[in-house]
Specification:
The chain is built from ten helices and ten strands. It is of the alpha/beta class. The strands form three sheets. The chain has a six-stranded mixed beta sheet with strand order 5-4-3-6-7-10, with helices on both faces. Helix 4 packs antiparallel against helix 5 and helix 6 runs parallel beside helix 7. The longest helix is centred in the first third of the chain and has 29 residues. The N terminus is likely disordered.
């Protein structure tokens, strides 16, 4: 399925106005990378863990050893003189909404990728998994406001648009209003959907909004962390700038107490909130590959269900 999905690609469209060549090149690189990740099993795990609304009739075929006798179609069996069974397929008709944090703190990255670039790859994997399973996918990009809303739709071109917007968007806000993004998602989703929140969860006051969204929708949290936010070096006097407020201060990291205080200020009580609200969450480090943890997260979630 995935190979066919990517082979049916249409000829490249002319470059969109306002989208740089560098951004389009990054979209292509992410597509190449995520294709191998999807074919390694993530798309299948996505299908298994996010179930459709039920089963619908597909066809009648001859009985084969091992078939469930409860599916025998007695009318066709009587008419043909041979046992036949009804075959059903999953009626998916699912919607995936990606809530992706593009605030100032997402521009932090101590090694190869900023959290925002890491989030774009994760979003791409989820979006293309949805496309491979014929689901709709949409996105909300947020900072201290909703920067962009892409209504859910099907198709590879639509998923690529979401990835492109993630890479090209220049946020007007620098802070983080996760609570507002959760309320926005609750208001725009008219039917039960899957909501994947991709953020570092470094914001106040979002706990109630997450619980409210969880009561109506299937919510997962992909919690982005960078180890250097909590493991500060003994570097003496350092000039630090808050990426969201722009505030600058000088801190002596040669003092252990200062390092401990700064590390504590970056830690989030998110894990406790996830546990209390019943939201399945996966913490992902920007310095480590995410493919195996993500596939394991989906498989473990599928077994529990």
């Amino acid at each position: 399925m995935l190979a066919r999905l990517f082979r049916r690609e249409k000829p490249a469209a002319p470059r969109s106005a306002g989208i740089s060549r560098e951004t389009l090149d990054r979209v292509r690189r992410i597509r190449i990378r995520t294709r191998s990740i999807l074919e390694s099993g993530v798309a299948g795990s996505y299908h298994a863990v996010f179930k459709g609304r039920g089963m619908e009739f597909d066809e009648v075929r001859e009985y084969q050893p091992g078939d469930d006798v409860r599916t025998i179609d007695w009318n066709v069996t009587a008419r043909t003189g041979l046992p036949h069974v009804k075959k059903f397929v999953e009626e998916r008709d699912l919607t995936l909404l990606l809530l992706v944090d593009v605030s100032g703190s997402q521009r932090f990255g101590s090694r190869y990728l900023q959290k925002r670039e890491f989030a774009a790859e994760l979003a791409a994997v989820l979006a293309f998994s949805a496309v491979a399973n014929h689901d709709r996918v949409g996105a909300v990009l947020f900072s201290d406001r909703v920067e962009r809303y892409v209504p859910p739709a099907r198709g590879l071109d639509h998923a690529q648009r979401i990835v492109r917007d993630l890479l090209a968007e220049e946020p007007k806000g620098r802070g983080t209003d996760l609570a507002g993004a959760l309320r926005f998602a609750r208001d725009v989703l008219r039917r039960r959907s899957i909501v994947a929140v991709v953020s570092d969860f470094q914001a106040p006051g979002w706990e109630r909004g997450l619980g409210s969204l969880r009561r109506r929708h299937d919510v997962i949290a992909l919690h982005l962390v960078d180890p250097h936010e909590a493991e500060l070096p003994d570097a003496g006097l350092v000039r630090l700038a808050d990426p969201e407020t722009g505030a600058v201060r000088v801190v002596d990291l040669g003092v252990a107490a200062n390092r401990a205080a700064l590390a504590a200020s970056t830690r989030s009580s998110a894990a406790e909130v996830f546990r209390r609200t019943g939201v399945d969450a996966l913490a992902l480090s920007t310095t480590e590959p995410y493919e195996r943890p993500l596939r394991g997260f989906f498989e473990a979630r599928g077994r529990r269900r």
